[in-house]
Amino acid sequence: MSSRTLFSEADHRYMARALQLAKRGLYTTDPNPRVGCVIVQQLPGQSGRIVGEGFHLRTGEPHAEIHALNAAGEHAKGATAYVTLEPCSHTGRTGPCAVALANAQVARVVVAMVDPNPQVSGRGIELLKAAGIEVDVGLLEADARALNPGFIARMQHKRPFVRLKMAMSLDGRTAMGSGESQWITGQEARCHVQRLRARSSAILSGVESIIMDDSRLTLRAEQLQLENAESVVLRQPLRVILDTRLRLPLAAACLSEPGRTLVMTTPAHSPEKRAKLTAAGAEVHVFEAGSDGRLPLNELLDWLAKHEQVNELLVETGATLAGALLDAKLVDELQLFVAPTLLGGEAKPLFALPGLSRMADQRRLKIHDIRAVGSDWRIIATPQPD
Ligand code: AOF
Ligand code: ZN
């Protein structure tokens, strides 16, 4: 939502601070959004003073505004609250923050973005206005949206934000002809991938890559290099494996790791294997295959949003599934790690996109960021609409 309000330099500074606070919940709020709040007291003739700060830490715990109000106490009266997401108007796991702000008699609320949650979506702002509070919306909105791409996608489109991570050599290869692929990128790039896993609700992979790499698809806290490691309780992202005929080995490493493993299959599987996989800890779900005999990717993503509240979905897989997702236009963001090495020979290419044959078919990407990560390069790109 855009706003015609002219925000002051101080407004920008305080909202930037609120965004910074929100980021502290990056790895823990899921499936709730990351939200930060700053309360500023403005005394006549003096510059503003922060009297309360807060951020949302975990689902079920108080919202950012409540922490900030508690810290501000009496000083909240007549103050300005900066919130990265519209204060809520509903009573969910916690009470409505818009009511708490009104009760504390703040004079003004600055909101970075309207809450995409249909239970809120403008009602929080209305509630504040009805209480006589001045409300300004849209300050640093792009930054606020970037904090919660998954929550926004799930609320607005009922599907996760799909981030495809791939690692390739400078000659565009992801594995040797034999399938051997560990390791193409260096340690620092692998730390980045750990951070991508940590912010994701789930990791999606194809059974072929699991068979090939026997990857655990887990979060290793020590590799995250967190500053506040002791105060962050990490959850393991859900592992989701696409496996049309249940070929997942019973001894697959990911099955004995902490956290849940969902195996998505079609009716073309053997019931005995299903029973064995279930006994080994997998949760097997059956989807009707499409006309090509493959799992219906669209439906699967909708299912993950609806049944598992998946906000950000990290895809770590091989050329076939990566190509199929791109082909179906289901990728929201591509993170590509490029290593300074050549694999040559019969090595595997990045994507299988067999349907593209003419220049007119090419898939255009927009590059948003390129930076060095250790000795590798990271490219962040988004597929462009036709
Ligand atoms: C948060 N943290 O700081 C704010 C949120 O289930 P509940 O009761 O915690 O409510 C979650 C909803 O509250 C969430 O979907 C969003 O719409 C709204 N605002 N949520 O988790 C916060 N301010
Ligand atoms: Zn709230």
TrEMBL record:
UniProt-recorded name of the protein: Riboflavin biosynthesis protein RibD
Classification via CDD domains: Riboflavin_deaminase-reductase (cd01284)
EC number in record: 3.5.4.26, 1.1.1.193
Reaction(s) catalysed (UniProt annotation): 2,5-diamino-6-hydroxy-4-(5-phosphoribosylamino)-pyrimidine + H2O + H(+) = 5-amino-6-(5-phospho-D-ribosylamino)uracil + NH4(+); 5-amino-6-(5-phospho-D-ribitylamino)uracil + NADP(+) = 5-amino-6-(5-phospho-D-ribosylamino)uracil + NADPH + H(+)
Gene this protein is translated from: ribD
Organism whose genome encodes this protein: Vreelandella nanhaiensis
Function: Converts 2,5-diamino-6-(ribosylamino)-4(3h)-pyrimidinone 5'-phosphate into 5-amino-6-(ribosylamino)-2,4(1h,3h)-pyrimidinedione 5'-phosphate.
Co-factor note (free text): Binds 1 zinc ion.
Pathway: Cofactor biosynthesis; riboflavin biosynthesis; 5-amino-6-(D-ribitylamino)uracil from GTP: step 2/4; Cofactor biosynthesis; riboflavin biosynthesis; 5-amino-6-(D-ribitylamino)uracil from GTP: step 3/4
